[in-house]
């Protein structure tokens, strides 16, 4: 039962996150669609691990190089998904969306 609750809460959190992403892009106040590139990272992140699960035999309990590489690539994709808004804020292509972010204010205050 605990697994079902975790799955439901993860899907609810993902749905809320996607809703806020769509609203942030679609509202006429902002009128910027650059943050939708984050959807590519959301789609790409589970692919390496799913491929490695198909390729690797799970009979042995030891660590496998294919699984380790898949976890490494998945981690890189997830970190890139967090880094893309920072790049957008630094390039100022999403100034309306990112001006209120704490990260951009911290960046501006530290580089005066």
Question: Mind sketching the topology for me?
Answer:
Elements: H1 2-26, H2 38-44, H3 47-55, H4 65-91, H5 95-98, H6 102-110
Please tell me about this protein's structure:
Negatively regulates growth hormone (GH) receptor cell surface expression in liver. May play a role in liver resistance to GH during periods of reduced nutrient availability. It comes from Gouania willdenowi. This protein is mainly alpha-helical. It has a domain of 78 residues. 72% of the residues lie in helices and 0% in strands. The protein is built from 6 helices and no strands. The chain is flat, with a radius of gyration of 18 Å.
What coarse outline follows from CA principal-axis ratios? Answer: flat
Rounded to an integer in angstroms, the radius of gyration calculated over CA atoms is 18 Å
Helix content: over 70%
Unreliable residue runs: none
Q: How many angstroms does the end-to-end distance come to? A: 53 Å
Number of strands: 0
Helices and strands, in N-to-C order?
Answer: HHHHHH
Number of helices: 6
Largest sheet: none
Q: What is the beta-strand fraction?
A: under 5%
The computed structural class is mainly alpha
**Overall mean confidence score, pLDDT:** 75
Family: Belongs to the OB-RGRP/VPS55 family.
InterPro entries: Vps55/LEPROT
Transmembrane segments: 7-30, 36-56, 68-88
Pfam family, one: Vps55
